[in-house]
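job 3f2a | input accepted
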Amino acid sequence: MALFGRSRVRHAQGKRAEAIADLDGAIRIAPGFAEAWGLRGVIKLEEKRRAEALADLQKAVELKPSLKAAFGPSLHDAGRDGFGLLAEADDERGAASRAVLARNADEVTKARVVDAGGLRCVQRIAGAVGAKILV
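job 3f2a | predicted structure (135 res):
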């Protein structure tokens, strides 16, 4: 969808208000477009509009549960236990997150975190629960 693409460009340019306006339009046209809800939530979180961000991020995950891994940390920042959502993900990030939440360092080091984003997520979870990990 063109509006979503343009919103991503505007967000990258720091034009948050314009990006949100595009996302509002995209959601009006396609209310089931989970990624649009999620990106709008992330941008609102950047603007410290936590309650609105939380509602948008929750809607994104409700519409498309596979987005739990992508938006779990943002949900946490918006005020919900997003790390718990991340731990529910059926991928390497979920496995590592579950291990961190259980404070099982051996399992964390065995889990394959496939990209830098995944590693950052796991490190944030470890910090939040006070676990020490070496990954």
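job 3f2a | The two ends are 38 Å apart (CA to CA).
job 3f2a | closed
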